[in-house]
Structures are given as structure tokens and as C-alpha cells.
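Session log. Operator J.P. requested a structure for one protein chain; no other inputs attached. Running the standard single-chain path with C-alpha cell output.
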Amino acid sequence: FSSTESNPQVTEAGTYLITVTNELGCTSTDQLTLFPCEEQPSCEEPKVGTLMLVDANTDQDLIEITDGAVINLQLFSNPMNINAIPEDCPTTLVRSVRFFLEGPIDITKTESVAPYALGGDNSGNYNPITFPTGTYTLRTIAYSEKGTKGTAGTPVDISFIIVNEDPKPCADGT
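Structure written below.
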């Protein structure tokens, strides 16, 4: 969906990236999730729901990263980034995310504008991170206000491994 109207109307539920540009050309971008009225979730605290591996060259989602994931650089090449997607709640509940990555590279970062990306972004254009092989631990904490202020949600902790190995053939030899 794209519009240049000053008051666009959206009729379909979904997650939208909204960029507003003023008469001087200054922009601000945020993410908004619209739910059908009968499906409004109730949320007790801000929380990261999904950690998504992103190709930083194409800005396309690759795979959801879960605890224990093995990411093969033969299948998903550097540079990449990781997007913390808020739990399925109105995004007004999550206004910032704090990242703590430990491993062959360490990154500590606060993002106060969606997409909430470990390596940051420029209006949805993900900044590149080149991940060396090794074991990583990532902690994300969502906050109800920008700049890690307000209510802190329950931390989401995962471990994952980056490898660079020839993919194993299928059981049938293909």
C-alpha cells in the first residue's frame, strides 16, 4: 500500500511501515499494526515476538532465528542484520528495543524507531553486519517508551551458531 494522500484510509489488517514527509522534506518512519476489531490482542507488557534474519543487501527477510538455530553462510550470505519484531500487539506498546549481542562480535544497541534492527537502518534500508562464524547469544528487551524508558518487557534470550559449511545432501543423495 502506498499513498500520497494527507489522510489515507487502510481497510485491511496488517503491519505497515509509515513514512511521513513534511514540506521541508524531513521524514520520520514508524511501524503500525492494524488488527481486525474482533482480534485485538491484550498485552500485559512490551515484548519482542520474533527475531528475523535479514539480508542487508536486499532488505528481505530470510528466516526467523529461534533458540539453537544454525545459520549457514553457504545458504545465507553476509552482510546481514537482525530485526526484532514486536509481539502481535498494537505497536504503540513497543516504542524501543535494546539489543545485547555477545559472541565473535559484540554489539549493544538501542533502536527507538521501527524496524528495530540490531545493526540499525536508514528508513528501512538495513545497515550491514558481517557475522563471523561462531556461537552467539542475543538478548532483546522491549520498552514502552523510546530510548529504553518506560516499562521494560521480559527479556527474550536466544543462542545461535553461524557456520560456513557445504550443505549436507538430502537423504536421497540430491
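Operator note: DSSP finds no helices and 14 strands in the chain.
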